[in-house]
Amino acid sequence: MRTDGELATDAIRATDATAATAATTAAWSDPPVRWSLIVPLKPLALAKSRLSAAADALLRPRLALAFALDTVAAALASPAVADVSVVTDDPAAAAGLAALGARIVPDSPGAGLNAALAHGARTVRSLRPGAPLAALNADLPALRPGELARVLTRASAFPRAFLTDAAGIGTTLLTAAPGSELQPTFGGPSRCRHLASGAVEIVLDGVDSVRQDVDTGADLAAAFALGVGPRTAERWAAGARAV
Ligand SMILES: Nc1nc2c(ncn2[C@@H]2O[C@H](COP(=O)(O)OP(=O)(O)OP(=O)(O)O)[C@@H](O)[C@H]2O)c(=O)[nH]1
Ligand SMILES: C=C(OP(=O)(O)O)C(=O)O
Q1: Is 213 in contact with 170 (CB distance < 8 Å)?
Q2: For residue 189, what pLDDT band results from cuts at 50, 70 and 90?
Q3: Which domains does the chain have, with CATH numbers?
Q4: pTM for the full model?
Q5: Measured from the CB, is residue 60 less than 6 Å from ligand 1?
Q6: Best of 113, 136, 140 to mutate for ligand 1, by most ligand atoms within 8 A of CB?
Q7: DSSP 159
Q8: Confidence of residue 241 (pLDDT cuts 50, 70, 90)
Q9: How many alpha carbons fall within 13 Å on the CB side of residue 122?
Q10: Edge-to-edge strand list for the sheet holding 200-201
């Protein structure tokens, strides 16, 4: 039989253990967790081919750059974001994105989107070991910093998580907590692949700006309805001419 004193000590130990567990959890799941984002961007001359019905061959690369600049500017303005690394081999895009404050990682694998993301993840973790990672597409011109913060805060409860695109078929964001690998399988119907890989789907209302990627003219109209960033608005108004 334990004495009252021993029981009281046990209770204090249990409280301490609970507090320690809570502190460990809080260190990860409570704000301010600040994420390292990895944004892939293919050479602008090759980008946004599915926009051809809405934009000619001169305008498409300029729109792709405007989307990327608005995406990265909004991401850098999010309270949940520590830094943004853009994996690209495009020199003009690299200059513009670096001027916003992004780190530029050359796409040295040159082996497509998922290889670029895996390379970006390795690079970021070599610089910031244990960083929480989020891959985010560069074609989210309506992205809002607060909506991105809500998605990332929800993602922080899981080892890996993702957000499906506006169509509910692809993926706009994939996360990996410290100690987890990103395991990106983007491209086409990636929602199913990310689910099958064990990533948890984030389901939240009011985060349309994080889901609205722009592949087609209809997507662009939907992004405008949400409200695009200033570079996309200016580029669309100017068309292909210099601004
Ligand atoms: N670094 C890098 N980024 C890529 C590559 N392929 C696609 N991306 C980026 O991945 C994201 C999603 O790409 P997609 O929407 O499939 O391609 P897109 O060029 O934007 O559009 P489409 O030409 O219509 O397929 C965008 O941010 C692209 O710029 C690649 O090989 N390397
Ligand atoms: C890369 C993706 O988007 P897209 O629809 O542009 O291929 C994806 O959803 O995995």
Answers
A1: yes
A2: very high
A3: 33-238 (3.90.550.10)
A4: 0.89
A5: no
A6: 113
A7: S
A8: confident
A9: 9
A10: 103-105, 81-87, 35-40, 133-136, 171-176, 160-164, 200-201
Query: DSSP labels for 7-65?
Result: HHHHHHHHHHHHHHHHHHHHHHHSS---EEEEEE---GGGS-GGGTTTS-TTHHHHHHH
CA of 41 to the centre of ligand 2 (A): 12
Residues 84, 94 contacting (CB under 8 angstroms): no
* CB 52 less than 6 A from any atom of ligand 1: no
Query: At residue 207, does pLDDT exceed 60?
Result: yes
Contact, 165 vs 172, CB < 8 A?
Answer: yes
> Residue 174: in which H helix or E strand, if any?
strand 171-176
How big is the chain by its Cα radius of gyration, in Å? 21
Classify residue 209 by burial, with Cβ atoms within 10 Å: 0-12, 13-18, 19+.
buried
* Two tokens, residue 200: 């948890």
